[in-house]
Amino acid sequence: MDLDFSSLPLARKSTRYSSRVFPLHALTLLSGHSRETSTDYYNNGRRRDFGYYAVWQYTIGGRGRIKMGGQDRDILPGSLMVLTVPGDEIYYLPEDSEYWEFVFLVMTGRDTNRVVKAVQNSRGILLAAGGIPRTMERFYLLIQDLFSGKITNPFDNSTRSYGLCMALMEEAGNPGNMKEKNSFEELQVLLQDNLYRDIPVEEMAELTKLSRSHFTRLFTGKLGLSPRKYLEELRLRTAGDMLAGGNISVKEAAIQVGIRDVNYFCRIFKKRFGVSPGKYRETVFKELPPPPPPPFYGGY
Predict the structure, then answer these.
(1) Rounded to whole angstroms, how far apart are CA atoms 274 and 298?
(2) Which of 57, 127, 230, 267 could form a disulfide with 225, with the two C-beta atoms 3.0–4.6 Å apart?
(3) What SS3 state is found at 280?
(4) Which stretches of the chain are DSSP H helices?
(5) Per residue of the chain (300 residues), what is the pLDDT tens digit?
(6) Helix or strand run (H / E) with residue 83
C-alpha cells in the first residue's frame, strides 16, 4: 500500500461526538497535517495544564528536534514519535532547520497511554517507520478517514484508535513490559479502573504490602502527590476527558468518576482547571490554538 502522507491536506481536524456518554479506552481527539517553518513551533511537555494525552507524530520532510534525558536528538523523515503528555520531553523546530512537515494524532484513553509507555520502555520515543509497517498503514488509514469524515461516531473512532495501539504494541512493544514495573504503577492502573468507588489509603497500602505510613511516604515521594490527592487528580482528569469528548452532563461525569456530591465536584474541578465543568465542556475545543498537537500544552 502506498502511504502518501504528503497528499493529505494541510489541516487539522478536531473530533467531538454528542453521543459519547462514558469513557472509552482509546479515542482520537485531534488529527492533522502541518508544515512548520517558524521556530515559534515549540512544545514543552513539562507543562501540566489540562488533560493527559498521547501524541503520535510522523515526520514526512524537513527536520525537527527533541530534547529528552538532557540530550537533543534530530527527528528525521521516516520517524514516528510517540509520547505521553505531560512528559519530560520538549520538541521543536530548531533554528538550523528550514521546515518540519509531519502528520499527527492526539489520543486520550487509558489503553492508549499504557501502550505508548510500554513501547517507550521497550523501544524509545522515536521509531523507524520501516520497522512497523502494519502500524504505519493503520496510522495512515485512520488519519485519512478522519479527514474525509468516514468515521462518524465515537465507537468506530475508538475501535480504530485501539486497533492502531494494538498494532504498535505487536510490532514495537515487548509484552514483558506491559506488566507495570513496580507495585505503585500496578496500583495506578487499579485506581484508574475503579474510579467509581472510594479505595481507602489502608487498602492501597495493603495492595502494595506496606504499612499505611510507609506507603504514604513512599507514594508521595515518588509521584509528588499524596494517595488521596492523586486519586482526586485522576478523577478530575478523567472527568475532564469525558466532558471534552461528548455530550455528557456534569452530574453524570461526576458520578462516573465516583464523586456523588456534584457541588463538591464543581468546586474542586474549578479549583483544578480554573473554569467550571460546564464552561470547560463548552470551550475546551474552541480554545485549541492553531496547528498542531497537542491541545492545552506547549507553545500553541
Answers:
(1) 18
(2) 230
(3) helix
(4) 110-123, 133-148, 154-172, 183-193, 201-207, 212-223, 227-245, 250-256, 262-273, 277-283
(5) 678 999 999 999 988 766 555 567 789 989 999 999 999 999 887 654 545 789 999 999 999 999 987 788 999 999 999 998 878 889 999 999 999 999 999 998 878 888 888 888 778 899 999 989 999 999 999 999 999 999 988 889 999 999 999 999 989 875 443 443 456 767 877 787 788 888 899 988 888 888 888 889 888 887 788 999 989 988 898 888 788 766 688 998 899 889 999 999 999 999 988 889 988 887 764 444 333 333 333 332
(6) strand 79-85
pTM over 0.70: no
| Nearest partner of 280 among 261, 265, 258, judged by Cα | 265
The answer to whether the beta carbons of residues 68 and 88 sit under 8 Å apart is yes
The DSSP 8-state label assigned to residue 262 in this structure reads H
Give the CATH superfamily of 5-177.
Regulatory protein AraC (2.60.120.280)
The CATH homologous superfamily of the domain defined by 183-283: Homeodomain-like (1.10.10.60)
| Adjacency order of strands within the sheet including 42-44 | 42-44, 90-92, 64-68, 71-75
Q: Side chain identity at 221, as an amino acid letter?
A: G
DSSP-derived secondary structure for 182-216: SHHHHHHHHHHHTTTS---HHHHHHHTTS-HHHHH
Burial per residue of 271-281, b for 16 or more beta-carbon CB atoms within 10 angstroms, e otherwise:
ebbebebeebb
With residue 72 as reference, give the H or E element that holds it. strand 71-75
Strands across the sheet containing 27-36: 12-14, 27-36, 100-108, 53-62, 79-85, 126-128
